[in-house]
Amino acid sequence: MPWVAGLQARVLTHERARAGQPSHASVVEAALALARRHGLAARVTRAEDGWSAHGGARSVSQVELSDDLPVIIELVGATARIQALLPEVVALASTHGTITLTAARVFEP
Length: 109
Known about the structure:
The chain has helices at 27-38, 79-93; strands spanning 3-14, 41-46, 49-51, 57-59, 70-78, 98-107. The protein is built from two helices and six strands. It has a single domain (3-107), classed as Alpha-Beta Plaits (2-Layer Sandwich). The model has no long low-confidence stretch (mean pLDDT 83). A hairpin with a 5-residue loop joins strand 3 and strand 4. Helix 1 packs antiparallel against helix 2 (79-93). By secondary structure, it is α+β, with helices and mostly antiparallel strands.
């Protein structure tokens, strides 16, 4: 079977977080573009509540919807592919998020 050792890089940030220069794109947009360029699976999940390690609480109530909710960006791929782009992920999210790395088994047909 085509299962390979892989990694899941997870970035916990918020919707308005901006990547560094030169693009000034959002961290979400930049991370998805990075995943696309490297042929990785990616997913962005919006959370209802969250607390960042950088001191910010963000939540949404039933009455109002926020435009700066917490988000989780997940990038999944073979170990070598994820390790190769980790410096770029760190550059994107180091000031606006927390990054975790988890071992995974990845199916690559």
